[in-house]
Amino acid sequence: RVLRALVSEGESTRAALSASLELSLATVANVVNDLIVEGFVHGPSLIPSDGGRPTGVLNARPEGAYFVGADVGEHGVTVELFDLTLRPVSRVFRNLPSRSVAASDISKALSAAVDEVISQGGSPTNVYGIGLGVPGIVETEVETPGSNTGSRIAIYAQSLNWPPTGLLDIYQRSDLPVFADNGAKTLTAAESWFGAAKGIDNGLVALLGRGIGLGIINNGQILRGSESSAGEWGHTKVSLGGALCNCGKRGCLEAYVGGGGIARRWNEAGGAPSVDEENSLQELLDAATAGDVVAIRIVEETIEILGLGLSNMVNLFNPKLIVLGGWA
Which residues contact 268 (CB under 8 A, 6 or more apart)? Predict the structure, then answer.
């Protein structure tokens, strides 16, 4: 808790940590001393105070630890190396030319990118793990009491046309622990730690891309459900029957306001979108700005359907804040 607070806040004092974490000053002092010995925290730097002894300011030691963040997106694999202050040190992007890329191809690209990003960052030996964001549902099957199977992670990435896929099929190396989660939840973690939702106990973070995801901040924690797959907002229904979704069902929100769904609706209304969904969305907005009546109608319908989906979530979760993110 002390280290997390120092990473999140950037700097603090023993007294401030004691107050914010509701820990005794002696406990904080002991923990800080341990963190200094272990190389995670810089010893206190003294700054003048208002008429008393100088104040000792503590900082996380950037080179004390490194972490890899990896995002399996719709167009490629992005991998970054971060130091203990979560400052980006190096970055690698590997393009995935096919929408239906196989998990084995992802695994090769991801493994090579991890090696490259660590090498670019000076090959530190104290890399502690990999945070992996993937599209689709990420279910964690918790270990059964009395068994020795451990927990298993299954990934259901409909937007990549995968069958149910185990985490080991995505990243097979055992030298670094991997923490996998749905991309909307990783975005929610970032926004709640450092971004627009920092300090918000109850909020929603929506990820709008080819698919539609949602992270739900409930009493300061990301809501996960019984198997870590809560928040599949894109597959809530806005129509009985309706348009076919990537999940194989009909009437899902994603089928209407996901990047592919918007392009499909414009095409069916007589537009001529590009095959690339990001380009087609920009073309739609350009056409609407230029006064194209059909494009204007599609944009207005999209906003109305998105608003309907958001209002349903507001009624369910009573958030203080909604954050919209993602390329769409």
Answer: none
Q: Which of 88, 135, 83, 90 is nearest to 115 (CA)?
A: 90
- Alpha-carbon dihedral 232, 233, 238, 239, rounded to 10 degrees: -10
Residue 148 CB burial class (10 angstroms; 0-12, 13-18, ≥19): exposed
Handedness of CA 129, 230, 323, 237 (dihedral sign): positive
- This prediction's pTM: 0.84
What is the identity of the amino acid at 300?
E
From CA 107, how far away is CA 77, in angstroms rounded? 10
* Tokens encoding 283: 């073309």
The DSSP element (H or E) to which 106 belongs, if any, is helix 103-120
pLDDT tens for each residue of 262-318: 999 999 999 989 888 889 999 999 999 999 999 999 999 999 999 999 999 999 999
Tell me 135's DSSP state. S
d(CA 212, CA 233): 7
Contact (Cβ atoms closer than 8 angstroms) between residue 169 and residue 61:
no
Long-range contacts of 254-257 (CB under 8 A, 24+ apart): 254/211, 254/212, 256/302, 256/305, 257/208, 257/212, 257/302, 257/305, 257/306, 257/309, 257/328
